[in-house]
């Protein structure tokens, strides 16, 4: 049986949830990425301060593949020059495995987990529904697999060298991102990766959102394939929904992996929209001033922020104070959801909605 860790992603020095855990940490696990936290010397210093302020027990550094994906969709020029800075110009993005590993070496403390540089495939819901979906999935996979193989292999080689030189801890775990829509595509990715030589890595990271749109059977097939390969570490990228978190928590109770984790920015993104995440099912509802909430609706949330507070009280908080309240509440709810399932402390239900929006 392994452990399940939910990483706090998207936090900044001014938006870090200030809920204090029993060990004094504000967040148990913190995920940062190269693009958002290491572009300039000033950002690098603020990042070191953020890690210190969080007192996180676990720290993961993501390469920033999602930010690369956004930049590509915005039509920005993409460089791959290790001698140039990450963002030499407003309309230019520059990223290489050297940037990623360099950030891991620089940051203090160094990450426990590093995600190799990758080029993310398109989300299925962005495909043209009037065209063959499978054909689009295959073309998309082929257009990215070359970079994902070469970047993954080069990141692994750089990490190996840095460990041998004492620049990185030998305990650092390297995860390779899986950007594939099917087991058959994943098998090709592994075949290509093996052609790069003896590549040392510790597990995989993967966005499950594309597989969810196909079926959870596809996700289970990937999990079985990872297990057959002897992989002991798995991270689900950008997951904070009822089904995925429940599934990952279930896996952590089975003898498949030593480590299972997930991350999401949902806690912050929903708070900024003035949306309250409900602790029973991780769904959210608006709680702005125009929301009609009956006084008969009881706030049953177990988080310390909601303790003794009615929904009407939360609704009437000043906007900035409400956003801060919701950041802390939402983070607590997402973090503790899986823990409660694992410990069987509550019966999770799809009880929703509570009020009319």
Textual characterization of the structure:
This protein has 357 residues and is α/β, with parallel strands linked by helices. The protein is built from twelve helices and twelve strands. It has helices at 34-37, 41-54, 65-73, 97-106, 133-164, 183-194, 209-214, 216-228, 242-252, 266-272, 311-315, 319-343, and strands spanning 3-9, 29-33, 58-62, 77-79, 92-94, 113-115, 173-177, 203-207, 233-237, 259-264, 275-277, 284-286. The radius of gyration is 21 Å and the shape is globular.
* CATH-scheme architecture of the largest domain: Alpha-Beta Barrel
What is the N-to-C order of secondary-structure elements (H for helix, E for strand)? EEHHEHEEHEHEHEHHEHEHEEHH
CATH topology of the largest domain: TIM Barrel
Identify the quaternary structure here: single chain
Radius of gyration: 21 Å
What is the mean pLDDT?
Answer: 87
Please describe the topology of this protein.
Elements (H helix, E strand, L loop, with lengths): L2 E7 L19 E5 H4 L3 H14 L3 E5 L2 H9 L3 E3 L12 E3 L2 H10 L6 E3 L17 H32 L8 E5 L5 H12 L8 E5 L1 H6 L1 H13 L4 E5 L4 H11 L6 E6 L1 H7 L2 E3 L6 E3 L24 H5 L3 H25 L14
Parallel strand pairs: 1-2, 1-10, 2-3, 3-6, 4-5, 6-7, 7-8, 8-9, 9-10
Antiparallel strand pairs: 11-12
Helix pairs in contact: 4-5, 5-6, 9-12, 10-12
């Amino acid at each position: 049986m392994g452990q399940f860790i939910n990483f706090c992603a998207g936090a900044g020095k001014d938006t870090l949830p200030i809920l204090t855990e029993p060990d004094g940490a504000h967040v148990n696990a913190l995920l940062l990425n190269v693009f958002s936290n290491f572009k300039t010397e000033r950002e690098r210093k603020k990042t070191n301060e953020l890690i210190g302020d969080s007192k996180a027990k676990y720290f993961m550094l993501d390469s920033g593949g999602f930010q690369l994906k956004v930049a590509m969709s915005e039509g920005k020029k993409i460089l791959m020059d290790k001698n140039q800075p990450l963002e030499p110009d407003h309309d230019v993005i520059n990223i290489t495995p050297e940037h990623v590993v360099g950030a891991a070496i620089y940051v203090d403390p160094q990450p426990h987990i590093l995600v190799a540089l990758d080029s993310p495939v398109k989300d299925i819901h962005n495909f043209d529904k009037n065209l063959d979906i499978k054909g689009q999935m295959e073309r998309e996979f082929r257009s990215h697999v070359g970079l994902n193989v070469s970047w993954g292999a080069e990141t692994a080689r750089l990490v190996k060298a840095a460990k041998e030189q004492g620049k990185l801890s030998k305990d650092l775990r390297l995860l390779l991102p899986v950007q594939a829509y099917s087991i058959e595509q994943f098998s090709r990715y592994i075949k290509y990766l093996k052609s790069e030589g003896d590549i040392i890595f510790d597990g995989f990271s993967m966005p499950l959102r594309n597989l969810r749109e196909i079926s959870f059977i596809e996700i289970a097939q990937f999990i079985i394939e990872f297990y057959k390969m002897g992989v002991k570490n798995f991270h689900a990228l950008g997951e904070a929904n009822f089904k995925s978190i429940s599934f990952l928590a279930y896996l952590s109770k089975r003898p498949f992996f030593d480590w299972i984790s997930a991350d999401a920015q949902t806690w912050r993104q929903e708070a900024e929209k003035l949306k309250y995440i409900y602790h029973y099912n991780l769904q959210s509802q608006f709680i702005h001033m125009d929301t009609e909430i009956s006084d008969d609706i009881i706030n049953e949330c177990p988080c310390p922020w909601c303790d003794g507070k009615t929904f009407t009280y939360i609704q009437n908080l000043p906007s900035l104070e409400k956003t801060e309240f919701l950041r802390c509440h939402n983070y607590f709810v997402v973090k503790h959801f899986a823990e409660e399932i694992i410990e069987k402390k509550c019966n999770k239900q799809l009880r929703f909605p509570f009020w009319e929006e």
